[in-house]
Amino acid sequence: MAPYASDDSTTAAEDDDLRAARRRRAARYGVPAAVIGIAAGTIGLVPAIADSGSPDLPKITAEELIEKIAASDVQQLSGTVRISTDLGLPDLGGLESGMLSGAAGADGEGSSADPAARLTELASGSHTLRVAADGPDRHKVSLLEDAAEYSLIHNGKDVWGYDSASNEVYHATVDEHGGKHEKQAPATPQDLAEEALKAVDDTTSVTVDGTAQVAGRDAYKLLIEPKQTGSTVGAISIAVDAETGLPLKFTLTPASGGAAVVDAGFTQVSFAEPAASTFDFTPPKGAKVTEDDSVEAPAHAGKSEEDLAKGFQGAEVVGEGWNAVAVLDTGAEGGVPTEAAGGELGGFLGSFGDRVSGDFGSGTVFKTRLINALITEDGTVYVGAVTKDALVKAADAGQ
């Protein structure tokens, strides 16, 4: 959706008020935004790659390679990462970030340095990152932008976020068990690989698909493919460092074909100990510092990504394997607003959803290239990495 463009008859303040009003109206319809959030959460933050060549490595079985990943215990590394994401999300003109994060520093609703605001940027496009780690309590990820940089630093009990463009700082603390803010930090490639491997069961084919070189490292390629039809996932390829067992590259291709949904991995990596100063941070002079407990909950009714994750963990699940669908009762009867009921925004939301009907009644399917969600007229949401037809089938089976 194109941003509002002012004309000579409106003042800058009036423009700001109108933009804020549109965001508030958008927030009333949080479920479509939640679909985008779920898709973003599915991606996580994984490193991106450059691979070439097929090194001659000792033979290894898929089971042995999985065990190698599980046994990997890399504690120290640094490198450069490239991540490209193509979920096929509609262009919301930046609206989705505000609805999902609840941290739009420029509008006074939190800090632009809050990780929950910045990491949603990885849900689309290509990004370059610098990463470093030294044990479980010291990590740094820097998102490089044109003439600016965003850094997320975990050093002991302190978690810092710094946005150089706005000169804003976010600060939180974690307890000895990790604390709630640990979940805002990016996942490692190993975390993502382990999540993918959780799907390995009788509905999954797992094979070793040759070898590759990633960031100058010899690697085995593990290929994970659904045996079932109806999943939006075509295949997941994980390049595993032959020496350390660390996943170096993670690529998810859709069943519909075309470019990868996620293509992420190291372009350069070192397993030497990073300098201790890498994880030091002091707020720059004049920076606006927001402490975690001073960040107020956003005024809109949308849920945070963490709340959404908790909600899905408690959801009813129908189907099995790659065709599993989570079912939630939102209690919001009426489904997605029509243009008549929801005005301009309602018509816009409906424009990128497909109306469907079946034994369950009628509803709207919101689609990405990976995660799809059906929102019925009675407020029930069916969501999963499955096709539109599979969602309708799941909804019909629930009647």
Detailed description of the structure:
This protein is an alpha+beta fold and 399 residues long. The protein has one domain: outer membrane lipoprotein receptor (LolB), chain A (Clam), CATH 2.50.20. It has nine helices and 18 strands. A twelve-stranded mixed β-sheet has the order 7-8-9-10-11-1-2-3-4-5-6-12, with helices on one face. Strands 13-14-18-17-16-15 form a six-stranded antiparallel β-sheet.
Ordered list of secondary-structure elements with their pairings:
Elements lengths: L11 H16 L2 H14 L18 H10 L4 E11 L8 H7 L13 H4 L5 E11 L3 E8 L2 E8 L2 E6 L4 E6 L15 H9 L6 E11 L2 E10 L6 E9 L5 E8 L7 E9 L17 E4 L13 H9 L2 E3 L6 E5 L9 H13 L1 E6 L2 E7 L4 E5 L3 E5 L3 H10 L2
Parallel strand pairs: 6-12
Antiparallel strand pairs: 1-2, 1-11, 2-3, 3-4, 4-5, 5-6, 7-8, 8-9, 9-10, 10-11, 13-14, 14-18, 15-16, 16-17, 17-18
Compact description:
By secondary structure, this protein is α+β, with helices and mostly antiparallel strands. Helix content is 23%, strand content 33%.
Q: What form results from the Cα inertia axes?
A: globular
The Cα radius of gyration reads 22 Å
How many beta-strand runs? 18
Mean pLDDT, all residues: 75
Instruction: Briefly note the structural class of the backbone.
Output: alpha+beta
Task: State the oligomer.
Answer: single chain
Question: CATH topology, what is it called?
Answer: outer membrane lipoprotein receptor (LolB), chain A
Report the total helices.
9
* Name of the CATH architecture: Clam
Fraction in helix: 10-25%
The CATH homologous superfamily is named Lipoprotein localisation LolA/LolB/LppX
The CATH class assignment is Mainly Beta
Q: Can you list the strand order of the major beta sheet? A: 7-8-9-10-11-1-2-3-4-5-6-12
User: What proportion of the residues form beta strands (DSSP E)?
Assistant: 25-35%
How far from one another are the termini? 36 Å
H and E order: HHHEHHEEEEEHEEEEEEHEEHEEEEH
